[in-house]
Design goal:
The structure is a homodimer. Helix content of chain A is about 65%, strand content about 5%. Chain A is mainly alpha-helical. Chain A has a two-stranded antiparallel sheet with strand order 1-2. At the A-B interface, helix 1, helix 4, helix 5, helix 6 and helix 7 of A face helix 1, helix 4, helix 5, helix 6 and helix 7 of B. The structure holds a DNA duplex.
DNA sequence: GACATGTATATGTGCCGTCATATATAGTCG
DNA sequence: CGACTATATATGACGGCACATATACATGTC
């Protein structure tokens, strides 16, 4: 569902080919959304069928021709409807919490290992995200940041906050199940 | 993928029918995992094929017969492998962040409305979760809580923390884009 | 008496996503 | 020279998941 709307979102910024879109997804929303290449092309075909997008072939020399997709008026209306509309109820699925829910049968050391590995993964993710944020921060330093840019930064901030929360939670849980031994009073 | 493992998790606690499993999903992990009824039956069939689960029909009078599923030794090994194994790289997909990413084209009031509605939704979710936690807290008050129970509470705590984080983030963003007017000095 | 709800299992259909693969050319690296 | 990467689009196969629907009986409600 959302994939088509995401594509409309990108096409509202500028006309793009499927190839462009794949790069745009990976480079700009990659930290919270992944899109499969094959699926992008199929979604584009569907958007054209629905009249939300128009295509024209741009011939190129030395490289394959591009199929440039441009959003239509109907497509813009559809996009705005999605943007302002209610959130489609997304099915929550947290595989890691599922593991924790059933991890009572594990040996304590195995459980600790699972949690420690999780913290490591999340720490690495946090570094990636703060790295991205720092990079953008330096790039934009001084200038006044407009609303669209501010919103893009906000999506990054969201990831950073949730990653920090996840690390804090896992650390707290680790301490709970494996209290650091204390000298008796 | 995870659905079969989640089912193995439940069956490691006690033998269950598909109907039991559906209720177990909705009642105990419903706040972070949803499972479709049809999919549960298909997953069970597959688990039986793979030798991870055994079935026997329990005849009942006055109500339909139950097909009781019991985890096998191979199933337990599979479960433990999943529990201790590396997290399968789950594709991140945050539809709301996608909206925010493209929401720069909205009129400021529409954007504020989207964010405000989101905060409301998350606040309601927070109330649900804290309600659940309080209920469990009262139920377990005084007794000593064993590890499996502690882990189940931890999954709830995870949801509460992330929901709080989401609310804080959205509130901060709202203030950023709509600074409360201040009297001039 | 009709209708809804609970118990219980199962199939059909269609969408979406992932992975593999095909095709064609230009440039780069060892 | 051969292998790999980048540019660019497209299809086939397969699996998971959601939603609708079917069946059957008991009990509770208006």
């Amino acid at each position: 569902m959302s994939l088509r709307h995401a594509i409309l979102g990108f096409l509202s910024l500028r006309p793009m080919s499927g190839y462009d879109l794949k790069k745009a997804f990976d480079e700009s929303v990659g930290h919270f959304w992944t899109a499969d290449q094959a699926q992008i092309y199929r979604a584009l075909a569907r958007l054209v069928d629905d009249g939300h997008v128009e295509v024209r072939t741009v011939e190129q020399t030395g490289r394959p021709d591009r199929r440039e997709h441009r959003i239509t008026e109907a497509g813009l209306r559809e996009l705005d409807g999605w943007l302002t509309g209610a959130a489609e109820p997304r099915p929550m699925r947290e595989p890691f919490l599922l593991k924790i829910f059933f991890a009572g049968r594990l040996a304590p050391d195995d459980l600790k290992a699972v949690l420690t590995r999780h913290v490591d993964t999340e720490r690495r993710r946090l570094e990636t995200l703060t790295g991205l944020a720092d990079g953008l921060g330096r790039l934009l330093a001084g200038r006044d940041i407009d609303l669209p840019q501010r919103l893009r930064l906000a999506t990054l901030d969201n990831g950073i906050r949730h990653t920090r929360t996840e690390i804090e939670w896992a650390d707290a849980l680790l301490e709970q199940i494996d209290p650091p031994s204390r000298p008796d009073r």
